[in-house]
Amino acid sequence: MYLEEFFGVPISDDVTAPPPAKPRRGGTVRSGAAEHARLVVLAGDQLGRRFLVQNKETIGRSDEATIVFDDTELSRHHARICRDPQGDYVLEDLDSSNGTLLNGVPVTRSVLAYGDKIQLGGNLVLVFSRYDLVEEQLLQRRRVELFGRLGAGVAHDLNNMLTVIASAVHGIRACDKDGDPEMVDWLDDLESATARAAALSPRLLRCVQSRSRGERGDVDLSNLCDEVCELVRHALDCSINIERDIQPSLMVVGQA
């Protein structure tokens, strides 16, 4: 009775033979061999992530699976999606411990249709949908533009904060009539750190602006390497020494 209420369908006494999935509107996926599909994670590990589905994909916890999830309720090789000779995508349960549900119905093998919801174990829910290259490119473009706006905002706020800090240092120096040596050392360190941070801000802004516009052109790898080393140096302990060995003025074509 509990299983019938949970799944919403009659459950036979033979647990190895679950009932067939309910008919679904919209037909099957058959759309030609060149078309691909995708899986979108609705719930569970890697929420929101999209996976391209081509001719054969295995889903599970094992590193040998083509789509891997860190979910203890999944079997090492939990389910497989493959294309049959007619071009349909077919979902198969690989004798998993916690079973596979298709639109709430336990299945061992079933043809997929766009919009189907696949539940693997108790946590992971995937949506099977059509892979649209144009849509993916537009989505990626929006992400890059958002990254550009976010980076520009961070650089602007950083500049404002550094201006306040620099003004405060100048004011403290003016008030320190006695020139206390310890205070002078602290202010020197603060002023030096502020100057280094101010130098990083325009680099950050240039980086995010070029990425958001998708600009391509000549890139000086030598200069880029120097800038990366400088950025990394500020994030590492002062006892760590960074050495670089790169040909001067090494130019390539790409995104700066």
Globally, the shape reads: elongated
* Individual helix count: 4
Measured by DSSP, the beta-strand proportion falls in 15-25%
Ranges where pLDDT stays below 50 over 5 or more residues in a row are 1-33
Helix content: 25-40%
Q: What is the CA-atom radius of gyration, in angstroms? A: 28 Å
Lateral arrangement of strands in the main beta sheet? 2-1-11-10-7-8
How many domains in all?
A: 3
What is the CATH class of the largest domain? Mainly Beta
Report the count of strand segments: 13
Work out the oligomeric state of the chains in this entry. Answer: single chain
Biggest sheet, in brief? 6 strands, antiparallel
CATH topology name of the largest domain: Tumour Suppressor Smad4
Q: Specify the structural class.
A: alpha+beta
Identify the CATH architecture of the largest domain: Sandwich
Compute the average pLDDT: 77
- Measured distance between first and last alpha carbons: 63 Å
Features:
single chain; 256 residues; Tumour Suppressor Smad4; six-stranded antiparallel beta sheet; five-stranded mixed beta sheet; 4 helices; 13 strands; 21% strand
